[in-house]
Inverse folding.
């Protein structure tokens, strides 16, 4: 009897699976906290040069005398220059400008950020981008080597990732300098990537086919809880070290996973570790209050020819699998370009930074609900087509709004941008689920990991897509809509339907997807 058949007997989503899944959902909650905390800790508030020799200088004028000093010392609208005034022998006043080395910041929104503490402004403003990139670089490399879990198992990578995340979170609180921050953020991203991949795949592999959509989508809601939680924490805690400390405390719980989360029995079976898999299945049956017959236990394995030596390059030996893989890579790149391209430019929308992040979470929640309630009913292909079409159409509409709408109609830009983002979020959530269903168990971490690399690559490029708006305001939306429509067509033509279908365990199973 195959593993999916056993799940039909002991329960596709019984009490045991629900308990484990509830624990696993804590990981995306932590990811939501850690990946979005930079919205606050790396925020650059309004600033100007500090007036030389003036103690207790503040960004806002304290009185008329202070205002006069600011006007005399600071060139108008300058953040990086001071004015040097002097009189020549004839008494004529001359003025020159020079770069300053200290600044004062507006503390009305943030008491203290990484930018203000380490003065990442003016000539050093690019260092802020570097700090952002080190986190994404860690994610990129972490996802890139995620296939290690296909060799050593899901649990070891979860434990390693959780340890790195916890340690890195506490180290950030006591960072002595900018270089230390950047290095630690790299390891933080590396840890997040390793835990996220394996946690997600364990969630898919412990349940039956009809319940995968629940584990694949509900975990995204805990990401949203992390988004809402960091919005609240960021509002309440305006000092970056204390904010990081509050999040670090949450990460401590991750260390308990080593005692709670089991290895994936599906992975154990594909690697020929039948005895260990049987122990977990028996525990699963006992918790679900189902008596597992001896003859069922004896045959709880996959066919002998499925226990193979893993070679990821086999995914590229078949023209059909190669095309499907490349299309899935493009899909991840597309939805990430749209998501991060908009998220990194939330300041162009109405509302402050806290409100914008909160509203974005609301729209993401709507997207996840759509996937949850209609994902199995209409199938992956139809839902992907609809979500990418809505995203592309709305983002294309923004182009014409920017070109032809009057100033009092610019609110339409925000509306269509958010609806387009919602469509992209539906596709993003769906592709997470679809990718896990598309790749075989023996290469599932490789598939989701390399696909996620495309998303991390997009997150690195996305800010540069936003820069095109400096040259032509509608340019980013032309790019977003073009990618969306391209992915729409290729997805509908080449990717197989996987809703309510057994998870493929081998590359042969993967080839058979979509064939009647």
């Amino acid at each position: 009897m195959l593993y999916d058949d056993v799940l039909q007997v002991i329960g596709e989503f019984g009490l045991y699976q629900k308990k484990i899944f509830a624990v696993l959902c804590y990981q995306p909650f932590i990811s939501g906290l850690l990946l979005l905390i930079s919205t606050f800790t790396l925020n650059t508030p309004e600033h100007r040069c500090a007036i030389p020799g003036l103690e207790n200088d503040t960004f806002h004028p304290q009185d008329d005398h202070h205002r006069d000093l600011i006007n005399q010392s600071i060139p108008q609208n300058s953040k990086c220059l001071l004015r040097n005034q002097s009189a020549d022998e004839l008494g004529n006043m001359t003025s020159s400008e020079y770069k300053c080395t200290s600044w004062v910041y507006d503390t009305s929104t943030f008491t203290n950020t990484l930018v203000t503490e380490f003065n990442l402004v003016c000539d050093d403003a690019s260092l802020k981008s570097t700090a952002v990139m080190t986190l994404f670089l860690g994610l990129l490399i972490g996802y890139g080597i995620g296939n290690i879990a296909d060799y050593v198992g899901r649990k070891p990578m979860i434990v390693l990732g959780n340890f790195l995340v916890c340690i890195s979170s506490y180290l950030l609180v006591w960072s002595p300098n900018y270089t230390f921050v950047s290095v630690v953020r790299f390891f933080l991203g590396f840890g997040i990537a390793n835990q996220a991949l394996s946690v997600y795949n364990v969630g898919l592999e412990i349940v039956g086919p009809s319940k995968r959509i629940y584990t694949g989508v509900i975990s995204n809601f805990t990401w949203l809880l992390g988004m809402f939680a960091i919005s609240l924490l960021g509002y309440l805690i305006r000092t970056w070290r204390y904010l990081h400390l509050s999040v670090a405390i949450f990460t401590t719980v991750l260390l308990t996973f080593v005692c709670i989360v089991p290895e994936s029995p599906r992975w154990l079976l594909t690697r020929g570790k039948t005895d260990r898999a049987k122990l977990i299945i028996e525990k699963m049956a006992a918790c679900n209050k189902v008596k597992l017959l001896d003859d069922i236990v004896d045959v709880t394995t996959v066919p002998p020819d499925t226990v193979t030596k893993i070679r990821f390059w086999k995914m590229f030996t078949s023209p059909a699998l190669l095309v499907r893989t490349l299309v899935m890579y493009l899909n991840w790149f597309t939805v990430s370009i749209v998501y991060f391209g908009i998220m990194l430019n939330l300041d162009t929308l109405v509302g402050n930074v806290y409100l914008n992040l909160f509203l974005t979470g609301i729209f993401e929640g709507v997207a996840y609900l759509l996937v949850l309630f209609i994902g199995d009913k209409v199938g992956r292909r139809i839902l992907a087509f609809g979500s990418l079409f809505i995203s592309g159409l709305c983002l294309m509409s923004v182009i014409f709004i920017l070109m032809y709408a009057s100033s009092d109609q610019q609110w339409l830009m925000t509306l269509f941008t958010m609806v387009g983002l919602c469509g992209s979020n539906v596709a993003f959530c769906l592709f997470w689920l679809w990718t896990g269903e598309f790749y075989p168990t023996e290469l599932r971490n490789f598939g989701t990991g390399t696909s996620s690399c495309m998303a991390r690559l997009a997150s690195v490029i996305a800010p540069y897509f936003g820069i095109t708006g400096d040259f032509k305001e509608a340019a980013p939306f032309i790019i977003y809509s073009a990618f969306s429509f391209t992915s729409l067509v290729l997805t509908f033509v080449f990717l197989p339907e996987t809703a309510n279908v057994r998870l493929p365990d081998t590359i042969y199973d993967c080839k058979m997807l979509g064939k009647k």
Q: What stands out?
A: Residues 29 and 222 are 5 Å apart (CA to CA). DSSP finds 22 helices and four strands in the chain. The chain has three domains: 1-43+112-306, 47-106, 308-516. The longest helix spans residues 353-404.
